[in-house]
Design a protein that fits this description.
Blueprint (H helix, E strand, L loop, with lengths): L4 H8 L29 H8 L24 E7 L4 H10 L4 H8 L1 E6 L6 H10 L3 H4 L5 E4 L4 E4 L4 E2 L15 H4 L5 H7 L3 E7 L6 H6 L5 E5 L2 H12 L7 E7 L1 H9 L5 H16 L6 H4 L2 E6 L5 E2 L5 E3 L4 H4 L7 E3 L2 E4 L7 H11 L3 E5 H6 L12 H5 L2 E5 L4 E3 L9 E2 L5 H4 E8 L3
Parallel strand pairs: 1-8, 1-9, 6-7, 6-8, 11-16
Antiparallel strand pairs: 2-18, 3-4, 4-5, 9-18, 10-17, 12-13, 13-15, 14-15
Helix pairs in contact: 10-12, 11-12
């Protein structure tokens, strides 16, 4: 099956079968396509390409991968954090010598969707477990954890309003048992597939890293782009015949867009830097034997939108909104969860909608959950508590702000806009 990327993009802009899509979402939001067109489907796809079946979520639709099935022994997945499919397309159209344009010409370059919310914590947890957000429970960057009685940043993890060094680990948080589902690494090991992750050394000790890479055969830290590609080359150049999955995570594009948005060329410079190192330290060194049976895939966890200061809705200064809430908003600034004093009272929902206006869509969290927005499986025990009573989705470039973060972040993600939700799947056989 073949489809032009523009045709596939048009398909992805429609809700999938079984998705309950309220009219209020309009046409500007894109639903995650867990039915074979999203990040959630990538782990099962890797297993299928290597001739194995990963139970649970189905693989991507055949057009993404079937031409490679049974012909490769090694799969390399490079995740470029925050590289939007739409931004990548613009770059490839404008720059004839763009390496990604050349690579796309040798293989496949299709859009797929991110997950909801479109944020690294949630997306990496999907890639690190092979299940939907509703099943692993990390449904945002900052979550109300009732077992600890705090809103916590799940990367560290620490109390979001805490200024000290104490983390939830000091309170008994165990990264190895926090997720209620097995890690992808151990699942692949059972299938006879060796798994290796390469991540920045600064993240090696984070709780999120420990949760995501549980069971991987090897987790290797690197200090720079050159170091990452050097490590990968050393690994790939070893030919022992065992099926291999390599997962390489690169974060600096995301860092640049949070700090600068689209201004100044910073995110483009970060992409160019890691791409140049990839060419010089990896592709240029590969021998025909290294390339044999090796599939290279580039993708992203989410995209992003510019979020200027004047597009912020400061929830801390909004007394009418604060009057309804038990505590601060959690989740994401563009996909937030509100815990309300009066719970699921329809009158509260009506007042929240009035206060936020047409720049935001406010829906009962239970409705969002039942709609399939976070997946169609049975919710893990804490999901409903973490999502609160109302989910708030931002339109355009709007976002909910607190703690003055609008003065430090000019680009964001988490919402359902095309720029946030459409991510690339670029795949090619290195020996083709």
């Amino acid at each position: 099956m073949h489809m032009h990327p523009s045709e596939l993009e048009a398909l992805l802009r429609q809700p999938g079968p079984g998705m309950v899509w309220p009219d209020m979402y309009g046409h500007e939001f894109i639903a995650p396509r867990y039915d074979g067109y999203s990040l959630v489907n990538v782990p099962a796809t890797v297993a299928a390409i290597l001739g194995q079946t990963l139970p649970g979520v189905e693989p991507l639709a055949p057009l993404y991968w079937q031409s490679y099935a049974g012909q490769v022994r090694r799969v390399i997945v490079l995740l470029l954090d925050a590289l939007s499919y739409l931004r990548l397309q613009e770059m490839m159209e404008l720059e004839e010598q763009c390496i990604w344009r050349r690579l796309a010409g040798r293989g496949l370059c299709y859009p797929m969707t991110s997950v909801c919310p479109s944020t690294t914590t949630t997306a990496l947890s999907c890639l690190g477990t092979g299940v939907e957000p509703v099943s692993h429970g990390l449904v945002g960057y900052e979550l109300w954890l009732r077992e600890f009685g705090v809103i916590a940043d799940l990367i560290t993890p620490k109390a979001s309003y805490g200024a000290g060094r104490e983390t939830l680990v000091d309170w008994g948080f165990d990264p190895n048992s926090f997720l209620p589902v097995p890690g992808l690494g151990s699942r692949l090991t059972e299938l006879g597939i060796r798994s290796t992750s390469l991540i920045s050394s600064q993240y090696m000790t984070s709780s999120l890293t420990q949760m995501i890479y549980r069971g991987f055969s090897r987790t290797i830290g690197y200090s720079s782009a050159e170091d990452m590609w050097g490590h990968l080359y050393d690994l790939v150049s070893q030919h022992d015949g065992q099926p291999d999955y390599y997962f390489c995570y690169w974060s600096t594009i995301d860092t640049a867009i949070h700090r600068y948005g689209s201004t100044g060329g910073y995110w483009q410079a970060e992409l160019q830097s890691v791409t140049r190192a990839m060419q010089e330290r990896f592709f240029d060194k590969l021998t025909p034997a290294d390339k044999c049976g090796t599939l290279f895939i580039m993708l992203a966890d989410h995209g992003w939108v510019d979020t200027p200061i004047d597009q912020a809705h400061d929830v801390e200064s909004n007394t009418a909104l604060r009057r309804e809430l038990l505590g601060p908003a959690s989740g994401e600034s563009r996909a937030a969860y509100l815990h309300c004093l009066a719970g699921e009272d329809p009158a509260v929902l009506a007042r929240v909608r009035t206060v936020l206006g047409e720049d935001f869509v406010a829906v009962p969290s239970r409705q969002a959950l039942n709609s399939g927005l976070l997946g169609t499986g049975a919710p893990m025990a804490e999901v409903q508590a973490r999502m609160g009573h109302i989910m708030v989705l931002a339109r355009g470039n709007r976002y909910l702000d607190r703690q003055g973060k609008r003065f430090r972040q000019r680009g964001r993600h988490g919402g359902l806009s095309p720029d946030e939700m459409l991510v690339p799947w670029l795949a090619l056989r290195l020996d083709d």
